[in-house]
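Structure tokens please, single chain.
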Amino acid sequence: MALTLRHMPEMLANLLASAPVPPQALDEAVRAGLPAFAVRELVEDGWLTWDDADALIASKRTLNRRLGDHAALTPDESDRLARLIELFGHARRVFGDQAKAKRWLARPWGEWGDRPRIRVAGTGAGLAAVREALAQIEWGMFA
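Here you go.
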């Protein structure tokens, strides 16, 4: 399976593949609003469920409206989406396998009340903790 998603802009696909993305370009894209269909692509590819998208990016109703209108996400929604895509790319790189990365992110995390890691990543503190756990795995430490 390819690392990029079918219709996702190249920049977002690069984030998912852990390829370099110029920070200024990502900032501009987030401020302009990332395409809502990127969320649908992540759901279809199994990185997120619609419930995850509802909890982490925008409400189902809002996402459905943006998808129906072929609209962009707001800058705040786009920022949340970009952070998640970066996390997905990091997890894929650490585990060397997309399926393993998805399973790890979906697995309940006892230290955080058995919430799945993907849901823990919905706050700044939670995202930092998930990134730290990935770094520990990447460097051979137990996480």
